[in-house]
């Protein structure tokens, strides 16, 4: 656990690096790791390995733990750290590389990413177990012996404090690679690491309890200290680079790989005063994400947000449509109760929903609340309606994927005080859309796709080349923009712009019941046309104002209610707890700082929708450029394999080298054998705002 005190770093004045940590004025209740001795040995080892950091020195800071600080004034552009490619520790160059290769646990031999990660964990275990016999002994000795700040060590009741947060979801494997989730650590131990150790007694690794403890430590070290290098995404422990802490908004170095010289470099992004901390950027991470991946939180964090899973959106839309259909069928509201909708087989786009259901059941025992599913009281018609709604939603989710509306890891990020993401509002609209509207969006998408391809072909001139990830991103951006245009036009029309409605062929209120409409009649019928006319009449002078907006807002309401209901405490309770912050145990404080901002973001959206209704939704859609840019980024990432935390802009490369950032993004090109492939360079997201290069081929940690 945290151990404080400004101790002197190797060759440095005690506490000289007040810098950013001082400005921070806050020390994370967890995460500032205990410090193990061994700087002198480590510094000697660095000299032997030609790991250079001539202008900086090691230090221990009260707020961030062990750190690297400027030993003198550093000029922007100076190389502050150089690590030869072969000094990094990887599965591919450790002392048991052949064994790991044979067992399919290296970059070239592994079938799955998770096995590569396990390969590095085993490599760290072996090198650690070898003690002084390991080439990396002084480096590994400097890593904190105590990693219990990481939530994977939290007790069940402490972990429960995180329920509802992105940290909780991810730790249970709900929001990203399930196999990377900390809660899977015991499983990975028993299924992967323990059998490996048993089959290779010659490696001298301990089994049993001792082995598991070493495994947990190595897992924590790899999660919070390793880097993912370059396009090829080699997972590596990079000495000295990993001494740098993260302080949101304070990053002052970027990471770079010099291919010519085969060295990983850290370059000053600005002038750094003597004594100031060198600060890396782990990504645009909320407190919940920082806690999950690195075991610390920040007092104020501009990246705090709440993550809305796509599964929630789909479920809320289904519930809304079912309620509307049932109302249309003139059933009693009560008919909605007890209609156990079958949640299976929704399709891959609703990943996470079933798990959420489990959690809800666990949390409240009333997951299948009112308004869900046919099967009993609603009778056959209702059952058919619900089935049609499910099909309609599944098909629109596929369309949304084609349009690039699906967010990374299937979660939308909602920030306090900002309109919801355009892609989220657009997705809700799409889910509620009629077949005709969905078809129009599909056509618009295809047209934009074709236009973008044509433009790319024209830009490529005579030498037609294969579309790169960046090209694909342009296409997706265009498609997403087209889809959003169609949707925005329809929404604007519904908000009262009749002309736009006609121009876009948008329809009356009842016809907007989307999949609910499908449920009654797949094709457009005379009755439906009549209904449309009726609706137009009903709407009268108001022109159906707010009908769609009202429905979209209702879906938002359902999402928000469900999201807010997931936490162990209410927003009010948390605000009260903040008043007793100092008296809370560290892990409770950390959990509070992880979940409170999420609730504040949800409450803020609730207020925004209540105050501005359709205005807030229109503002959301107006942010389409950002959404489209996000889609473009996702596509670039998707061409590789996507990944964890941070931003996702594509990286540039040159003969000289590549820049890298923290986002787990790569283009997935052909595997290469060389080690330390890393480009290096700019941590992904926040640097965009700091005016730094936007390259991002470099990640930190893995998806723990
Ligand atoms: C790459 S290491 C950085 C070096 C680390 N401080 C040490 O003592 O070894 C990442 C770990 O540093 C700590 N850390 C990084 N930034 C922090 C911050 N802003 N506040 C508290 N702890 C931080 C967390 O324990 C995190 O898991």
UniProtKB/TrEMBL annotation:
Keywords associated with the record? Methyltransferase, S-adenosyl-L-methionine, Transferase
In alphabetical order, the GO MF annotations are: protein-lysine N-methyltransferase activity
Q: Which residues form the SET domain?
A: 49-283
Which CDD domains does the UniProt record give?
SET_SETD6
Q: Does the UniProt entry include the keyword Methyltransferase?
A: yes
Q: Where is the composition biased (Low complexity)?
A: 683-697
Q: Where is the composition biased (Gly residues)?
A: 639-650
Region Disordered, annotated ranges: 1-22, 330-384, 501-547, 634-704
Gene Ontology BP terms: methylation
Gene3D superfamilies named among the record's database cross-references: Rubisco LSMT, substrate-binding domain, set domain protein methyltransferase, domain 1
Instruction: Report if keyword Transmembrane is assigned.
Output: no
Please list the residue ranges that the record marks as compositionally biased, kind Acidic residues: 330-368, 519-540
At the top level of its lineage, which domain of life is listed? Eukaryota
PANTHER family, alphabetically? SET DOMAIN-CONTAINING PROTEIN, UNCHARACTERIZED PUTATIVE METHYLTRANSFERASE
**Protein name, as recorded:** SET domain-containing protein
